[in-house]
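User: Predict structure, ligand LLP.
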Amino acid sequence: MEISNVNVFDLKEKYGTPLYIFDAAHIKNIMKLYKDNFKSNQFETEILYASKAFNVKEMIRLVKDNGLSLDCVSVGELYTALSVGFDPKKVYFHGNNKTYDDLLYIINNNVGTIVVDNLDELKCLSDILNNLKKSVNIIIRLNVGVEAHTHKFIVTAHVDSKFGVIYNSNDFKEMLDIINNNKYINFMGFHSHIGSQIFDLACFKSALEKLIGYCKDFKEELVLNIGGGYGVHYTNEDKPIPFDIVSKTLIETCENLLKENNVKIKKLAIEPGRSIVAEAGYTLYTIGYTKKTPNKEYYFIDGGMTDNIRPALYGAKYDCDIVGKENLVKDHTVTIAGKCCESGDLIIENYKLPEAKQGDLLITYTTGAYGYSMSSNYNKALTPAVVFVDNGKSKLAVKRQTLEELIEREL
Ligand code: LLP
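Assistant: Predicted complex:
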């Protein structure tokens, strides 16, 4: 088995397991698909990579080199981006509870746009700007009340969501007053993010309809950022829409709605995270022991929920193979279990694979988004290494954590 012309057994030899592998060529292709197709001659467009999906220096370098902007949601994500020279002007900073110190850090580092999530945050920001006598661009995150059909834990736009304000609510009106009375706040427009792993583009049309309707109340042409959420293929249950079609459909939908409503906007932005990195990512494990119980057969791997929490947290499903045995008869129905002291540490359940022996390599697909970024040191597991492959070459992006590093902050 090869990924971007790099042999997977060689990767195991060189870097060990568990190992996250990222196909850089694949990531670059997806970025290009978005860039080539998310364009309009009626308004500016901007594509932000939602870095919460996977934020390490090498990934940010790819984003930078391919000309995308960046969505950061923590000082840590921003710090990582700045450390590789990412232009802060191309950063949108999110979050429902940015602290005073966060805001100060964001402003002092000249972040391009702050996505203000609620009234209290705007009050805090306004005070800071008055003290510093410094201007910033903001957009307001709106809860447009559109609920995407996806896993309930990752829907973010239902009416009681912790994110965003409701248009024309009392909080919203007070926010407009603050904006109108503070010359340091440049109000640019609105943001909405309606959920993640979405396959039905009609949800985005509903959100855009709302946002464009709101634009009518403003004299100036606004920026609309409609978030991310475009679904990817984990298993055959998922039927993703190709991202060139996603891009074109969103642009067309927006252009049509603008025409119908006789409205102009300055810019339309999107924030894909998962769709840029998920399918480019693989996790490689070594199989240790196998075990049969009356009703189950287990293959144990040398990682688990510490490198992929999504099955335990969301019931997420993945495909996998035993490396080098992809074409053998898959006559064992097995459960892939991790090594954590937790019964729920199952990566894949009741899956057809060939017979495995100790030392075989198991590879799981589509683990590029929200895998490494949600990894933990539960049971004091060491965070795996991350390697990028591209056209026959491999490059270590994150070293495997060591035991010394595991306790270096402990006193
Ligand atoms: N913009 C905002 C404001 C977001 O909250 C998110 C994701 C995105 C963009 C990117 O969405 P994407 O294109 O990646 O779907 N941990 C969960 C996903 C949480 C998504 C949170 N927000 C998972 O593993 O499925």
